[in-house]
Amino acid sequence: MKIKTKLKQHNLCGIGLVFILLALQACKHPLAIQGEGDIVELNETGRGCTLEQFQAGATACTENEVSGDYLVNYRAVPRDGWWFVRWEGPCGHLSESPDCRIESPASWVAYWDATFGGVEIPATKAVFAEIGAEVKVLPLNDTGVPWGGNYPSGNNSSCSGETVAQQDCAHGRDSLFDDDDDGHSGFSFTRLDNTGAALGDEALIWSCVVDNVTSLVWEVKTIDGGVQDQGATYRWGGVSALAGAPGDYYSDWNVLVNLARSESLCGYSDWRVPTVKELENLRFLKRSRPAVDRNFFSGALSQPYWTATPAAGSTNAEEEGADAWYVDFSDSAVGVGSRTEERRVRLVRGGF
Amino acid sequence: MMTNRMMVFVALMLMSGLLHAECGAFQSSTPDRQLQDNADFTVTDLATGLMWQQCSLGQEATAECTGSATTYNWQGALQAADALNAQGGLAGHADWRLPNVKELRSLVDESCIEPAINETRFPNTPPAQYWTSTPYAYCVNCSWLVSFERGTAEHLERVLLMAVRLVRTAD
Asked: Count of domains in chain A?
């Protein structure tokens, strides 16, 4: 015996009163794409929406009917020349992760309809943007190493050693601008107060440091126990993390980024977490722990600091855990580590 | 659907004998437009102003950089740069040098692994360790290297054998 259900509109979810005899009325979870990319379903349930399907108005995208459990693992995959920006709709809370898991068992569908009387589900939309044409200039600082090494062993106190004309100490800004006036060796920094005004060497308090070689402005950490304290650590993946790398993104560092922006630290509101190439450029490899000039970066610690750059190749992100890039200011190593590790963050803005 | 596509892709790559770097989930840090192919087996990075050998030392100067990269210990790597210059250099320049660790790291494309480099501009790069000219402060027989498996900067003993790619400052 069939029992008909009353449905308010065709695309709403509904239930049968008798589960055994009635199929659940199909419920639509549409998928949408902005820009060029695909929504791929990792569990191979046959769901998903390619760019071509979306453009043709295929029902796999516009309707994506669900009866019973809706358990899916979507991944937004950009086409060549495009990059993933964000999700909108049911996955929109996920920051910059391209992975979105939806778990709606059949019982939830029933509850939804009973409670809300059938609500149209907004499209699960993946937003992609085209890669720009500009080239980001990032001049390199030198390493700060003014001495040479011998082979197979031994480090000297001056620029002498094995085939020394080929060694680091014989080249670059360190050898051309070897003074300590505005930063050790070839570095050149300027201190800023909290309004962004440049300060001289006699300043006892400053809020930011400009790297005159790269034009980047760096946050100086504090020791006041507040949001900018040198001791604060975070998991990886909040606002300004580079979007699109499979795996979890954690919003821990949002409190720091949002504070710097809303309070206009040093007069700027476009603060972000640096890319790995920007952060490693601060490293001072002479013999320094932390490996950065503490005359300018007074709050620096010999610890690893996160960057905005996720690690590639995490195809088994779910099993192995996804990684991201960090710079370790104890030994100057630049490496990848688990996004769940708690590491420090130093904000940056500007550049060429 | 995606699985079938991936299987066909891998099969094609195996048949062509070229297994390429895995790239592309997020924005490249060394995109094609940033790396200028000078058509003389050198590539200029417009972001840093550095000019790089397109092929690693030991590979043939061909469009695919055929052959294997020669490996050297740290002393050999430093001397190999001098040797190249003494033989006339490359592309009309005789001031090539072993890059320092910041310079070699700048060539890494973090959106790729195995190798972590833009393979369009630097073909047939092995996912291997490459020497830099920077000695390491906390170990008297170690120097800095960059591993192009993932692009990390590390420090290891100078006696170890690693590949070499030379650099110069572009004019």
From this structure: 2
Residue A230 sits in the same domain as residue A101: no
Query: Is A1 domain-assigned?
Result: no
Say yes or no: A126 and A216 in one domain. no
User: In this prediction, what percent of chain B has a pLDDT beyond 90?
Assistant: 81
| AA identity, residue B138 | Y
Q: Given this model, what pLDDT does residue B10 score?
A: 46
In whole angstroms, what is the distance from residue A348 CA to residue A219 CA?
A: 6
Residues linked to residue A183 through DSSP beta bridges, in sequence order: A181
B133 closest CB neighbour out of A77, A78, A168: A168
Contact check, Cβ <8 Å, A143/B25? no
Q: How many residue contacts between A and B have a Cβ separation below 8 Å? A: 170
ipTM confidence: 0.87
Give chain B's domain count. 1
pLDDT score for A199: 94
Which residues 309-338 of A are in CB contact (within 8 Å) with B?
Answer: 309-313, 315, 325, 331-336
Q: Tell me if A149 and B158 make a contact (CB, 8 A cut-off).
A: yes
Residues of chain A in contact with residue B81, where contact means CB-CB under 8 angstroms, are: 166
pLDDT of amino acid B25: 76
CB contact at 8 A, B137 and A286:
yes
As to burial, measured by CB atoms within 10 angstroms (0-12 exposed, 13-18 middle, 19+ buried), residue A47 is buried
Task: Render pLDDT for A121-141 as a digit per residue (tens, 0 to 9).
Answer: 788 999 998 887 778 889 999
